[in-house]
Structure formats: structure tokens, C-alpha cells
Amino acid sequence: MTTPLPAFAVLVFEVLLNASSLFNHSNIRLPLRVDAALRLIIVTPDMHRVHHSIDPSETNSNFGFNVPSWDRIFGTYLAQPKSGHENMTIGIEQFRNRRNLWLDRMLIQPLLGRADRYPKNRVKEPSQSDPEL
């Protein structure tokens, strides 16, 4: 028979998980040395922001929002975006106009079907440069 988790333990876990998500989705700028040190133990805003880029090689990186080690272990860690944080374009291409940022449209986006132009969902076409095909 399994022992249920204490409610306090679940509460602490949820508070820490959500606090780290709020932190790395924030729009704060940390000094470079502080950011570099923190990246060893927690995902920083600059580290996770790369994942929200419209560039496929950047979107398909830095998935973690709590523990940075998973991206390093699975080879999806990318230190910086190609264009730098100031020039990086964020978002999903097909939802880039101002009207799609209104609450009513944002709430129905998951029901609109697959975001085909989102880099994670793109189907790679076979080419001569793919030795396996």
C-alpha cells in the first residue's frame, strides 16, 4: 500500500515550480556573470527565452523551465539566440498580428488545429543532404 503525499509537500512543490516558471518567463535582465552562475542550478529568463523564438533551431532548444540539466543531458541546450535577445523574434508565425493577441483569440487558439508553421510542428522534407533518406 502506498502512503499518500502530505498536502504540505505538494503545496511546497507547486509553489516552487510555479515560482521558477514565473521567474524564467519574466522580462528581467540579470548581469551576465549572475546569469551564467544561475544557469547551473535554475533556468534563467535569458536561457528559456531562446525557446520562444520563431527560428526552428532556437524553438527546438531550452525546453526546461525549472531544471536546466535536462537540456544539457539531451543536447537541446542553446546558450544564446543567433540574433541576440534584443533582435530575436518571439512567437508563433501564424499568430503574429495584433488581433490574435486579444484574450478571446488566445483562448481559442488551441482549438484551431495544428500550428503548422510553428517550428516544432514542421515536417522536414527529404533532401539529398539527408544521408538516411
Protein architecture, described:
With 133 residues, the chain is mainly alpha-helical. The chain has a domain at 7-91. 37% of the residues lie in helices and 0% in strands. It contains 7 helices and no strands. It has helices at 7-24, 32-38, 45-49, 56-59, 69-73, 84-87, 103-108. The longest helix is centred in the first third of the chain and has 18 residues, at 7-24. The chain is globular, with a radius of gyration of 18 Å. The termini are far apart.
Write the layout of secondary structure elements.
Blueprint: H1 7-24, H2 32-38, H3 45-49, H4 56-59, H5 69-73, H6 84-87, H7 103-108
The proportion of residues in beta strands is: under 5%
Radius of gyration: 18 Å
Which segments are poorly predicted (pLDDT under 50) over 5 or more consecutive residues?
Answer: 126-133
Order of helices and strands: HHHHHHH
- Structural class by SSE content: mainly alpha
Number of helices: 7
The percent of residues in helical segments reads 25-40%
Distance between the termini: 50 Å
Shape: globular
Largest sheet composition: none
Chain-averaged pLDDT:
84
Number of strands: 0
Briefly say what this structure is.
The protein has helices spanning 7-24, 32-38, 45-49, 56-59, 69-73, 84-87, 103-108.
